[in-house]
UniProtKB/TrEMBL annotation:
Protein origin, superkingdom: Eukaryota
Name of protein: NADPH oxidase 5
Keyword Membrane in record: no
UniProt entry keywords in alphabetical sequence: Calcium, Repeat
The UniProt record lists the keyword Calcium: yes
Database matches in Pfam families: EF-hand_5
Cross-referenced PANTHER family: CALCINEURIN B (PTHR23056), CALMODULIN (PTHR23056:SF110)
InterPro entries on file: CNBL1-10, EF-hand-dom_pair, EF_Hand_1_Ca_BS, EF_hand_dom
Organism of origin: Aplysia californica
Coiled coil: none
Family matches, as SUPFAM superfamilies: EF-hand (SSF47473)
Domain EF-hand per the UniProt entry, residue ranges: 39-74, 75-110
Length: 130
């Protein structure tokens, strides 16, 4: 990790510490607040799941640091792994057609675009070309 990323990582840690509860952990709600995103969106939820590695429902400083380190200083493979785990909701190691459909649906909803189910199906099929 380069010097700039290290400085940024320290800033992230300091920022999240301000929001942290007893024991230096963040619940999903406080984590989202710290991100400045109060709505419980699909992507915020997936991001929290990714950071909360041991899946105990709270993020501690170690998990936060590990997660941020991947995004700031990880290799391309690390970053692809991050994207994969955002979309791979059942943790199977693959993105199924159904998972892709849910990601696209969330994209459309959260960007206030208006797509019909037919258009979403079409898009899913176009991307999921087996
Ligand atoms: Ca955790
Ligand atoms: Ca999967």
């Amino acid at each position: 990790m380069d010097k700039e990323s290290k400085t940024l990582l320290e800033k992230i840690q300091t920022h999240f510490l301000k929001f942290s509860e007893a024991g230096g952990t963040l619940s999903k709600q406080t984590f989202l607040q710290a991100l400045g995103d109060r709505k419980d969106s699909f992507f915020a939820d997936r991001f929290f799941q990714y950071i909360d590695r041991n899946q105990d429902g709270v993020v501690d400083m170690r998990e936060l640091t590990q997660g941020a380190a991947v995004l700031l200083g990880g290799s391309d493979m690390d970053k692809i792994g991050f994207l994969l785990s955002l979309y791979d909701m059942d943790g199977s190691g693959e993105i199924s057609r159904e998972e892709l459909r849910r990601v696209l649906t969330a994209c459309v909803l959260e960007s206030n675009m208006h797509f019909s189910d037919t258009h979403l199906d079409y898009l899913t099929n176009a991307l999921f070309d087996e």
